[in-house]
Design brief:
By secondary structure, this protein is α/β, with parallel strands linked by helices. About 25% of the residues lie in helices and about 30% in strands. It is built from 4 helices and 6 strands, in the order H-E-H-E-E-H-E-H-E-E. A hairpin with a 4-residue loop joins strand 5 and strand 6. The relative contact order is 0.17.
Length: about 130
């Protein structure tokens, strides 16, 4: 591929989106997000957030998904970023189970970095207001 999509393109982060980046402290990634939008929350998502990028280090972190869902626009998304491979503290099936418990469904997976993966979670279409 001559011009592969950037990470932000893979995540679907569009210019001017309202975004929350929680638990992801990669300076390069944060700089890229800042170039795409100035509407960034770093501690608590604002109401009607279009995308939440949520870094999870332990399976217990996934309990926050239900609370994070409350801050999303109806068609918004939560990307759960976590370590991949044998070093991972938990597996993708743990993310999917926590998502289901929070009323979310998984729709996409993206490689976030050499060491991290990301799963995209959304509110099911039938449950959107």
């Amino acid at each position: 591929i001559k011009n592969p999509p950037s990470l932000l393109d893979k995540l679907g982060l569009k210019p001017g989106m309202r975004v929350a980046v929680l638990g992801v402290d990669d300076p390069s990634f944060l700089a890229q997000v800042g170039e795409r939008t100035t509407r960034i929350a770093r501690k608590t998502p604002k109401q009607d957030t279009e995308m939440i990028i949520f870094g999870a280090d332990a399976v217990t972190d996934l309990a926050r998904l239900a609370d994070l869902r409350e801050h999303l626009t109806p068609a918004g998304a939560i990307w759960v970023v976590h370590t991949k491979g044998k070093a991972a503290a938990f597996k993708d099936v743990d993310v999917f189970a926590a998502a289901k418990k929070a009323g979310l469904v998984d729709v996409k997976v993206a490689s976030f970095s050499a060491t991290h993966t990301a799963e995209k979670l959304v509110v099911p279409v039938k449950a959107r207001k």
